[in-house]
Sequence to fold (232 residues):
Amino acid sequence: DIQMTQSPSSLSASVGDRVTITCQASQDISNYLNWYQQKPGKAPKLLIFDASNLETGVPSRFSGSGSGTDFTFTISSLQPEDIATYYCQQYANFPYTFGQGTKLDIK
Amino acid sequence: EVLLVESGGGLVKPGGSLRLSCATSGFTFSNVWMNWVRLAPGKGLEWVGRIRRKTDGGTADYAAPVKGRFTISREDSQNMLFLQMDSLKTEDTAVYYCNTHDSGDYPAPWVRDYWGQGTLVTVSS
Fold:
């Protein structure tokens, strides 16, 4: 199975800060990577697909980059409504696997 | 409007069984592969399994922790997805989501990613 190592596991930042989360795959997954946002009691929401493509309707402050084994997710200017847990997910190989999540809160 | 609605969750004793359903509408269910994903208390998202569309064989794949105990099926005539869970363990306690995800590059990058609201399964004596 492909292991997805996501870091940090938690992050505290101020409104307006630039926030970066990384995800490393245990083997080459090309660009078969999604980034999800999940708020308590809600279903995951897709933000980024194929590593760098922004889902329709998602604010442009969210972005993703990377290919192969190393990926980055960035919020350019943190907003209060961005408080959530963020997950990367690979879908290059079965079984699809998620990173362990990054819980983001406001300082 | 796309809708996925899970049902069938509840409290069950270890070793028991439960069948979850996912009713879908707003897209062509028979054309898509479907997934089950779960979120256990205090843990992260975990992919449970998937089922192919009939034209791709209609077979299912499972994550190691549930293989041999869970069975995914579909009824395309009713736009329904199912998860039969047998020999349940306390560690199967989670919110279970049904999901479909598909993406492509032509004529421009596109994605179709739909989720239900989830149904809670609690395995406890």
